[in-house]
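Let us work through a complete example step by step.
Step 1: write down the sequence.
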Amino acid sequence: MKLSTPTISKKAVFCTLLTALLWLCLEIYVGSKYSSLRQQGDLKYYHWDAGTCWRLRPSIDATVNGRRVHTNSAGFRGQEEYPITSQHALRILTLGDSRSYGLAVGDQFTYSHVLQEQLRKEGVNAEVMNAGTPGYSIVQCRARLEQLLAYQPDIAILAAGYNDRRYLLLTPPDSAASFKRIALLRNIIGFLQHSNLFYAVSYELGKNKLDQLKQQAPSLDRVKIRVDEDVFRRELDAFIKTCRQHDIEPIILMIDQNPAVFEVTEQAAQLIENKGYQTAIQLLESNPDLHIAAAAYRQYLLGVCYRSINDEKQADQHFKNHQSIGSLHGEAILRSQKSYFDIIQEIAKREAIPTLNSRKAIYQINRYTDNPDINNYLDQFENEGYELANGQIYKTRVNGKIIDLENFFCGRLVDESHYDQAGHILIGTALADAIQNKLD
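Step 2: predict the structure and record it as tokens.
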């Protein structure tokens, strides 16, 4: 008996070709409609990483926030390459968030680069590797340190504590397990998004979810914090322990947020800590129009106050009266800077770890009036008629000197947390002085 060979009908071939043609046309059409959105996203600058959730892509060459930025072949900020075995007498690793990365400045004015240049001017054969990454918490900094131990740094400078205090709506608190799950999911989605159709569907679903959150965000008394105080304490201890196990000297840099944005909420938080609920209510209610970065925290603190005086109705109204800003890995801050700085200072004192405060570093401006990089920048800055976030006018120098140091400090912040060129120069110079003194 002769077996017949199955044949494919002309109709089936036609349907298959027509389907493929329609799919191709849809891919082209949808791709043209969403191409600008693909280009606008920040995700092209990051890898999803199981250890740290995300990290900077290598070999970036782009203009971000009006500044030319680069990463080297290993994903460190800047163009300088670093072999695994250092060719310098002293290798320093800086770890932190966008403030360490240098979001508002070019490569040559990050405090890491300034630190390197200052040490070399002072005769120290040093190199500084900037591993700062936008969005990082202390959990990510500690994990990133462990990834970079092969570089055998002599000193590790940690600057974390801002993103840790953000509240979450879409993701769980920072942990090794959550990083692994998020990175896996995002890598799968990223692979599927090579299809323009899938990109469009996933974008619209995500946008719809964020729009729902903006319209009806969860109550602030029920949201989670990325890294609460107890976890921050454990992670800082773990960071120091890892350093000492590998003969690395830790230094902690405490980078102040913008007091012109958060002064009212920080004062209220202190009043609440001392059970001054009515005074805190008066302070917060007399300042209804705070910067957007402090608005949710103001509502949270009012909710805490009213709940503490047993006015549950008012408390609920304030906890619910906030708007999501639609950030995947953290909304606005919802904890006091002081509480996290207190943890740093407590542990640093116990472990004899050197610390540096950014405000104190910037207050040293009048020691550096002959620095051309600072002076040329301030000449341009003062001609702009700059206004601080709280409405105060930025004060210019008098006979080349800064008279109001707090006003000058506030002027170094371009938003709620990021420092300008002069701020980075002064922080990097202060770090160099501290390290030089330690070496001496």
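Step 3: interpret the result. The longest strand covers residues 90-96.
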